[in-house]
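About this split. The held-out portion is used to measure sequence recovery: a designer receives only the C-alpha coordinates and must propose an amino acid at every position. Recovery is the fraction of positions where the proposal matches the reference. Here is one held-out target exactly as it appears in the evaluation file.
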Protein backbone atom coordinates (compact mmCIF):
# COMPACT_ATOMS: atom_id res chain seq x y z
CA UNK A 1 0.00 0.00 0.00
CA UNK A 2 2.75 2.45 0.95
CA UNK A 3 4.65 1.78 -2.28
CA UNK A 4 1.50 2.29 -4.37
CA UNK A 5 0.75 5.63 -2.67
CA UNK A 6 4.36 6.74 -3.06
CA UNK A 7 4.37 5.85 -6.77
CA UNK A 8 1.08 7.66 -7.41
CA UNK A 9 2.29 10.74 -5.55
CA UNK A 10 5.64 10.73 -7.36
CA UNK A 11 3.87 10.33 -10.70
CA UNK A 12 1.43 13.16 -9.92
CA UNK A 13 4.12 15.59 -8.74
CA UNK A 14 6.42 14.89 -11.69
CA UNK A 15 3.55 15.23 -14.17
CA UNK A 16 2.32 18.42 -12.52
CA UNK A 17 5.72 20.09 -12.67
CA UNK A 18 6.17 19.13 -16.33
CA UNK A 19 2.71 20.44 -17.27
CA UNK A 20 3.33 23.68 -15.37
CA UNK A 21 6.69 24.18 -17.11
CA UNK A 22 5.15 23.65 -20.58
CA UNK A 23 2.17 25.97 -19.99
CA UNK A 24 4.19 28.96 -18.89
CA UNK A 25 4.28 31.96 -21.19
CA UNK A 26 7.96 31.10 -21.66
CA UNK A 27 8.22 27.28 -21.46
CA UNK A 28 10.91 25.94 -19.14
CA UNK A 29 13.13 22.90 -19.50
CA UNK A 30 12.34 21.40 -16.10
CA UNK A 31 12.56 17.61 -16.52
CA UNK A 32 15.34 17.22 -13.96
CA UNK A 33 13.55 19.49 -11.49
CA UNK A 34 10.36 17.45 -11.96
CA UNK A 35 12.20 14.19 -11.28
CA UNK A 36 13.77 15.72 -8.16
CA UNK A 37 10.43 16.87 -6.71
CA UNK A 38 8.60 13.69 -7.72
CA UNK A 39 11.25 11.43 -6.18
CA UNK A 40 11.38 13.51 -3.01
CA UNK A 41 7.59 13.44 -2.66
CA UNK A 42 7.47 9.69 -3.23
CA UNK A 43 10.32 9.10 -0.79
CA UNK A 44 8.59 11.16 1.90
CA UNK A 45 5.41 9.16 1.36
CA UNK A 46 7.34 5.90 1.73
CA UNK A 47 8.89 7.16 4.95
CA UNK A 48 5.62 8.54 6.40
CA UNK A 49 3.69 5.35 5.63
CA UNK A 50 6.43 3.05 6.92
CA UNK A 51 7.11 1.52 3.52
CA UNK A 52 10.79 2.41 3.25
CA UNK A 53 13.64 0.46 4.73
CA UNK A 54 16.43 2.25 6.57
CA UNK A 55 18.75 1.63 3.64
CA UNK A 56 16.33 3.27 1.19
CA UNK A 57 16.09 6.34 3.42
CA UNK A 58 19.87 6.58 3.37
CA UNK A 59 20.55 6.11 -0.33
CA UNK A 60 17.56 8.02 -1.77
CA UNK A 61 18.30 11.38 -0.09
CA UNK A 62 21.97 10.86 -0.93
CA UNK A 63 21.12 10.23 -4.57
CA UNK A 64 18.91 13.32 -4.80
CA UNK A 65 21.56 15.43 -3.09
CA UNK A 66 24.21 14.12 -5.49
CA UNK A 67 22.07 14.97 -8.52
CA UNK A 68 21.16 18.41 -7.22
CA UNK A 69 24.73 19.39 -6.33
CA UNK A 70 26.06 18.15 -9.69
CA UNK A 71 23.33 20.09 -11.56
CA UNK A 72 24.12 23.31 -9.69
CA UNK A 73 27.87 22.98 -10.15
CA UNK A 74 27.50 22.16 -13.86
CA UNK A 75 25.17 25.12 -14.35
CA UNK A 76 27.81 27.37 -12.79
CA UNK A 77 30.45 25.90 -15.16
CA UNK A 78 32.54 24.37 -12.38
CA UNK A 79 35.35 22.27 -13.87
CA UNK A 80 34.70 18.55 -14.30
CA UNK A 81 37.66 17.51 -12.12
CA UNK A 82 36.41 19.64 -9.24
CA UNK A 83 32.94 18.19 -9.67
CA UNK A 84 34.49 14.70 -9.53
CA UNK A 85 35.91 15.51 -6.10
CA UNK A 86 32.53 16.70 -4.83
CA UNK A 87 30.82 13.61 -6.26
CA UNK A 88 33.36 11.35 -4.61
CA UNK A 89 32.87 13.02 -1.23
CA UNK A 90 29.08 12.72 -1.41
CA UNK A 91 29.10 9.09 -2.57
CA UNK A 92 31.77 8.09 -0.09
CA UNK A 93 29.82 9.82 2.68
CA UNK A 94 26.79 7.59 2.05
CA UNK A 95 29.00 4.50 1.91
CA UNK A 96 30.74 5.44 5.16
CA UNK A 97 27.34 5.56 6.84
CA UNK A 98 26.70 2.04 5.54
CA UNK A 99 30.15 0.93 6.68
CA UNK A 100 29.51 2.24 10.20
CA UNK A 101 26.20 0.34 10.23
CA UNK A 102 28.10 -2.84 9.39
CA UNK A 103 26.54 -3.37 5.96
CA UNK A 104 29.87 -3.58 4.09
CA UNK A 105 33.62 -3.63 4.62
CA UNK A 106 35.77 -0.53 4.30
CA UNK A 107 37.56 -1.91 1.22
CA UNK A 108 34.22 -2.60 -0.47
CA UNK A 109 33.04 0.91 0.38
CA UNK A 110 36.14 2.45 -1.22
CA UNK A 111 35.77 0.31 -4.34
CA UNK A 112 32.07 1.13 -4.59
CA UNK A 113 32.81 4.87 -4.29
CA UNK A 114 35.20 4.77 -7.26
CA UNK A 115 32.85 2.68 -9.39
CA UNK A 116 29.93 4.86 -8.32
CA UNK A 117 31.65 8.05 -9.50
CA UNK A 118 32.48 6.45 -12.84
CA UNK A 119 28.97 5.04 -13.31
CA UNK A 120 27.33 8.33 -12.36
CA UNK A 121 29.39 10.26 -14.91
CA UNK A 122 28.68 7.73 -17.65
CA UNK A 123 24.93 8.19 -17.14
CA UNK A 124 25.23 11.99 -17.02
CA UNK A 125 27.30 11.90 -20.22
CA UNK A 126 24.83 9.64 -21.99
CA UNK A 127 21.74 11.64 -20.98
CA UNK A 128 23.41 14.88 -22.06
CA UNK A 129 24.31 13.35 -25.41
CA UNK A 130 20.72 12.17 -25.94
CA UNK A 131 19.43 15.69 -25.30
CA UNK A 132 21.94 17.17 -27.74
CA UNK A 133 20.69 14.67 -30.33
CA UNK A 134 17.08 15.76 -29.80
CA UNK A 135 16.23 12.34 -28.37
CA UNK A 136 14.88 13.19 -24.89
CA UNK A 137 12.73 10.07 -24.68
CA UNK A 138 15.65 7.65 -24.98
CA UNK A 139 17.04 8.14 -21.41
CA UNK A 140 13.51 7.88 -20.01
CA UNK A 141 12.82 4.66 -21.91
CA UNK A 142 16.16 3.23 -20.80
CA UNK A 143 15.35 4.22 -17.22
CA UNK A 144 12.00 2.44 -17.44
CA UNK A 145 13.66 -0.69 -18.80
CA UNK A 146 16.27 -0.62 -16.04
CA UNK A 147 13.63 -0.10 -13.36
CA UNK A 148 11.49 -2.97 -14.64
CA UNK A 149 14.57 -5.19 -14.79
CA UNK A 150 15.48 -4.36 -11.19
CA UNK A 151 11.93 -5.06 -10.05
CA UNK A 152 12.38 -8.60 -11.42
CA UNK A 153 15.78 -8.81 -9.73
CA UNK A 154 14.26 -7.62 -6.43
CA UNK A 155 11.78 -10.51 -6.50
CA UNK A 156 14.70 -12.92 -6.16
CA UNK A 157 16.80 -10.99 -3.65
CA UNK A 158 16.35 -10.64 0.12
CA UNK A 159 16.04 -6.85 -0.22
CA UNK A 160 12.46 -5.52 0.05
CA UNK A 161 13.54 -1.90 -0.41
CA UNK A 162 14.90 -2.42 -3.93
CA UNK A 163 11.56 -3.29 -5.50
CA UNK A 164 9.77 -0.34 -3.93
CA UNK A 165 12.42 2.17 -4.96
CA UNK A 166 12.59 0.72 -8.50
CA UNK A 167 8.83 1.16 -8.84
CA UNK A 168 9.08 4.75 -7.57
CA UNK A 169 11.84 5.54 -10.08
CA UNK A 170 9.70 4.05 -12.86
CA UNK A 171 6.74 6.17 -11.75
CA UNK A 172 8.67 9.45 -11.90
CA UNK A 173 10.22 8.46 -15.24
CA UNK A 174 6.98 7.68 -17.09
CA UNK A 175 5.99 11.37 -17.51
CA UNK A 176 9.35 12.05 -19.21
CA UNK A 177 8.31 9.71 -22.01
CA UNK A 178 5.01 11.52 -22.61
CA UNK A 179 5.79 15.16 -21.78
CA UNK A 180 8.99 16.02 -23.60
CA UNK A 181 10.77 19.37 -23.06
CA UNK A 182 10.76 22.17 -25.65
CA UNK A 183 12.70 21.46 -28.85
CA UNK A 184 16.47 21.78 -28.47
CA UNK A 185 16.13 22.35 -24.73
CA UNK A 186 19.13 21.17 -22.72
CA UNK A 187 18.38 20.34 -19.09
CA UNK A 188 21.55 20.18 -16.99
CA UNK A 189 19.62 18.66 -14.09
CA UNK A 190 18.13 15.69 -15.94
CA UNK A 191 21.33 13.65 -16.33
CA UNK A 192 22.45 14.16 -12.71
CA UNK A 193 19.00 13.27 -11.34
CA UNK A 194 18.69 10.11 -13.43
CA UNK A 195 22.31 9.27 -12.65
CA UNK A 196 21.75 9.66 -8.93
CA UNK A 197 18.62 7.50 -8.94
CA UNK A 198 20.33 4.88 -11.10
CA UNK A 199 23.24 4.81 -8.67
CA UNK A 200 20.87 4.38 -5.71
CA UNK A 201 19.17 1.41 -7.38
CA UNK A 202 22.50 -0.17 -8.33
CA UNK A 203 23.78 0.23 -4.77
CA UNK A 204 20.66 -1.34 -3.28
CA UNK A 205 20.84 -4.25 -5.72
CA UNK A 206 24.54 -4.78 -5.01
CA UNK A 207 23.96 -4.81 -1.24
CA UNK A 208 21.16 -7.30 -1.87
CA UNK A 209 23.71 -9.73 -3.36
CA UNK A 210 23.20 -8.81 -7.02
CA UNK A 211 26.42 -9.35 -8.96
CA UNK A 212 28.31 -6.51 -10.69
CA UNK A 213 27.24 -7.98 -14.03
CA UNK A 214 23.57 -7.75 -13.05
CA UNK A 215 23.91 -4.20 -11.80
CA UNK A 216 25.60 -2.86 -14.93
CA UNK A 217 23.49 -4.78 -17.48
CA UNK A 218 20.83 -2.10 -18.29
CA UNK A 219 23.47 0.54 -19.12
CA UNK A 220 26.28 -1.68 -20.46
CA UNK A 221 25.85 -0.54 -24.11
CA UNK A 222 26.01 3.07 -22.92
CA UNK A 223 29.13 2.34 -20.87
CA UNK A 224 30.83 0.71 -23.86
CA UNK A 225 29.81 3.62 -26.10
CA UNK A 226 31.06 6.32 -23.73
CA UNK A 227 34.40 4.58 -23.08
CA UNK A 228 34.97 4.11 -26.81
CA UNK A 229 34.08 7.75 -27.55
CA UNK A 230 36.42 9.09 -24.87
CA UNK A 231 39.24 6.91 -26.22
CA UNK A 232 38.60 8.16 -29.75
CA UNK A 233 38.73 11.76 -28.53
CA UNK A 234 42.28 11.15 -27.33
CA UNK A 235 43.49 8.87 -30.12
CA UNK A 236 42.55 10.77 -33.28
CA UNK A 237 44.54 13.75 -34.49
CA UNK A 238 41.44 15.80 -35.30
CA UNK A 239 39.96 15.34 -31.83
CA UNK A 240 43.24 16.10 -30.08
CA UNK A 241 43.65 19.28 -32.13
CA UNK A 242 40.15 20.43 -31.20
CA UNK A 243 40.83 19.78 -27.52
CA UNK A 244 44.29 21.38 -27.49
CA UNK A 245 42.80 24.66 -28.69
CA UNK A 246 41.22 25.14 -25.27
CA UNK A 247 44.40 24.86 -23.17
CA UNK A 248 45.05 21.78 -21.05
CA UNK A 249 42.75 22.71 -18.14
CA UNK A 250 39.75 23.50 -20.31
CA UNK A 251 40.64 20.61 -22.62
CA UNK A 252 40.05 18.13 -19.79
CA UNK A 253 36.62 19.63 -19.15
CA UNK A 254 35.78 19.57 -22.87
CA UNK A 255 37.00 15.96 -23.19
CA UNK A 256 34.55 14.82 -20.48
CA UNK A 257 31.59 16.84 -21.78
CA UNK A 258 28.92 15.27 -24.02
CA UNK A 259 28.95 16.23 -27.68
CA UNK A 260 27.71 14.73 -30.91
CA UNK A 261 30.20 11.88 -31.29
CA UNK A 262 28.72 8.91 -29.43
CA UNK A 263 28.24 5.89 -31.67
CA UNK A 264 24.54 5.81 -30.76
CA UNK A 265 24.23 9.52 -31.59
CA UNK A 266 25.74 9.10 -35.04
CA UNK A 267 23.56 6.09 -35.79
CA UNK A 268 20.51 8.06 -34.62
CA UNK A 269 21.50 11.03 -36.80
CA UNK A 270 21.81 8.80 -39.88
CA UNK A 271 18.43 7.17 -39.33
CA UNK A 272 16.38 7.72 -36.20
CA UNK A 273 14.33 4.54 -36.51
CA UNK A 274 17.25 2.28 -37.47
CA UNK A 275 19.54 3.74 -34.81
CA UNK A 276 16.93 3.31 -32.09
CA UNK A 277 16.15 -0.25 -33.17
CA UNK A 278 19.82 -1.25 -33.06
CA UNK A 279 20.33 0.32 -29.65
CA UNK A 280 17.05 -1.02 -28.28
CA UNK A 281 17.71 -4.55 -29.48
CA UNK A 282 21.22 -4.76 -28.00
CA UNK A 283 20.00 -3.36 -24.66
CA UNK A 284 17.15 -5.86 -24.46
CA UNK A 285 19.51 -8.71 -25.41
CA UNK A 286 21.99 -7.72 -22.70
CA UNK A 287 19.26 -7.43 -20.05
CA UNK A 288 17.71 -10.76 -21.09
CA UNK A 289 21.11 -12.48 -20.97
CA UNK A 290 21.73 -10.99 -17.53
CA UNK A 291 18.46 -12.38 -16.18
CA UNK A 292 19.04 -15.77 -17.81
CA UNK A 293 22.59 -16.17 -16.48
CA UNK A 294 21.43 -15.13 -13.01
CA UNK A 295 18.56 -17.63 -12.99
CA UNK A 296 20.83 -20.52 -14.00
CA UNK A 297 23.59 -19.52 -11.58
CA UNK A 298 26.44 -18.43 -13.88
CA UNK A 299 29.48 -16.93 -12.06
CA UNK A 300 29.36 -13.14 -12.35
CA UNK A 301 32.64 -12.71 -14.23
CA UNK A 302 31.57 -15.23 -16.87
CA UNK A 303 28.20 -13.48 -17.08
CA UNK A 304 29.90 -10.10 -17.54
CA UNK A 305 31.94 -11.39 -20.48
CA UNK A 306 28.79 -12.90 -21.99
CA UNK A 307 27.07 -9.51 -21.77
CA UNK A 308 30.09 -7.77 -23.28
CA UNK A 309 29.95 -9.85 -26.47
CA UNK A 310 26.66 -8.37 -27.82
CA UNK A 311 27.51 -4.90 -26.45
CA UNK A 312 30.88 -4.86 -28.22
CA UNK A 313 29.29 -6.43 -31.28
CA UNK A 314 26.80 -3.57 -31.50
CA UNK A 315 29.66 -1.07 -31.16
CA UNK A 316 31.69 -2.71 -33.92
CA UNK A 317 28.70 -2.90 -36.27
CA UNK A 318 27.63 0.70 -35.63
CA UNK A 319 30.86 2.69 -35.17
CA UNK A 320 32.01 4.44 -38.38
CA UNK A 321 35.69 3.63 -37.77
CA UNK A 322 35.12 -0.13 -37.83
CA UNK A 323 33.05 -0.02 -41.01
CA UNK A 324 35.56 2.23 -42.80
CA UNK A 325 37.71 -0.64 -44.06
CA UNK A 326 38.02 -4.40 -44.06
CA UNK A 327 41.04 -4.24 -41.76
CA UNK A 328 39.21 -2.11 -39.18
CA UNK A 329 36.15 -4.35 -39.26
CA UNK A 330 38.26 -7.47 -38.82
CA UNK A 331 40.02 -5.82 -35.85
CA UNK A 332 36.66 -5.16 -34.22
CA UNK A 333 35.32 -8.64 -34.91
CA UNK A 334 38.58 -10.08 -33.62
CA UNK A 335 38.06 -8.18 -30.36
CA UNK A 336 34.55 -9.58 -30.04
CA UNK A 337 35.87 -13.09 -30.71
CA UNK A 338 38.63 -12.66 -28.13
CA UNK A 339 36.08 -11.67 -25.48
CA UNK A 340 34.00 -14.70 -26.45
CA UNK A 341 37.03 -16.98 -26.16
CA UNK A 342 37.91 -15.56 -22.77
CA UNK A 343 34.32 -16.12 -21.67
CA UNK A 344 34.51 -19.74 -22.79
CA UNK A 345 37.77 -20.30 -20.93
CA UNK A 346 36.37 -18.78 -17.73
CA UNK A 347 33.15 -20.77 -18.15
CA UNK A 348 35.20 -23.96 -18.44
CA UNK A 349 37.20 -23.12 -15.31
CA UNK A 350 34.47 -21.61 -13.11
CA UNK A 351 31.21 -23.16 -14.35
CA UNK A 352 31.99 -26.39 -16.18
CA UNK A 353 28.69 -26.75 -18.03
CA UNK A 354 28.92 -27.43 -21.75
CA UNK A 355 26.18 -24.91 -22.57
CA UNK A 356 28.06 -22.13 -20.80
CA UNK A 357 31.24 -23.16 -22.62
CA UNK A 358 29.55 -22.86 -26.00
CA UNK A 359 27.40 -19.77 -25.39
CA UNK A 360 30.13 -17.05 -25.52
CA UNK A 361 31.44 -18.30 -28.86
CA UNK A 362 27.89 -18.70 -30.15
CA UNK A 363 27.20 -15.05 -29.36
CA UNK A 364 30.42 -14.07 -31.16
CA UNK A 365 29.31 -16.17 -34.15
CA UNK A 366 26.01 -14.24 -34.22
CA UNK A 367 27.96 -10.98 -34.36
CA UNK A 368 30.04 -12.33 -37.27
CA UNK A 369 26.89 -13.44 -39.11
CA UNK A 370 25.29 -10.04 -38.58
CA UNK A 371 28.44 -8.35 -39.89
CA UNK A 372 28.23 -10.48 -43.04
CA UNK A 373 24.65 -9.31 -43.53
CA UNK A 374 25.04 -5.58 -42.89
CA UNK A 375 28.68 -5.00 -43.89
CA UNK A 376 29.15 -7.63 -46.58
CA UNK A 377 30.77 -5.22 -49.04
CA UNK A 378 33.32 -4.15 -46.43
CA UNK A 379 34.04 -7.61 -45.08
CA UNK A 380 34.04 -9.35 -48.47
CA UNK A 381 35.10 -6.82 -51.14
CA UNK A 382 34.17 -7.43 -54.75
CA UNK A 383 37.70 -8.57 -55.67
CA UNK A 384 37.58 -11.23 -52.97
CA UNK A 385 34.25 -12.58 -54.14
CA UNK A 386 35.01 -12.49 -57.88
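Reference sequence for scoring:
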Amino acid sequence: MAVAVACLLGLAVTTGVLIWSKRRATPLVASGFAVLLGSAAGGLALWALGGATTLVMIVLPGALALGLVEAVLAARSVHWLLRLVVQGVLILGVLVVEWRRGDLFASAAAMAAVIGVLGFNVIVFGVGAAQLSDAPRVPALLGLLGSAYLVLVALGLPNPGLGGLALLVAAVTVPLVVLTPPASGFDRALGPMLGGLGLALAFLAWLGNASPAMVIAPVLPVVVDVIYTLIVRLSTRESRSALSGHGWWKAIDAWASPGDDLVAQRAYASSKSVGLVWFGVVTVVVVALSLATWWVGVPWLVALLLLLVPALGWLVLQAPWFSASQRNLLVGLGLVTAVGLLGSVLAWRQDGRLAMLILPLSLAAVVWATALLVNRNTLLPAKATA
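Annotator remark: The chain has two domains: 1-210, 213-380.
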